[in-house]
Amino acid sequence: MAQLNLYVPDDLAAKLKKEAERAHMSLSGYVVQQLSKDHSDDYPPGYFERVCGFLKEDFPEILDPPPEPLTDLESLD
User: Fold this and answer.
1) 75: DSSP letter
2) Does a structural domain hold residue 31?
């Protein structure tokens, strides 16, 4: 298991510690649980379209043509 070190504001650290205690969990376990949650339902439908104004369901396929061939450097002499 990987170990991460974070720097957070003191007030956030205190809040996380209190929430972990209420959940009867270690601080590390509580933070991992929070980071692992699926947050896909946190935004109301259409949120990004309204806020950003350009997001749509169907994005056009990006054309990525191959690079043009390089000219032979000897022929430039």
Assistant:
1) G
2) yes
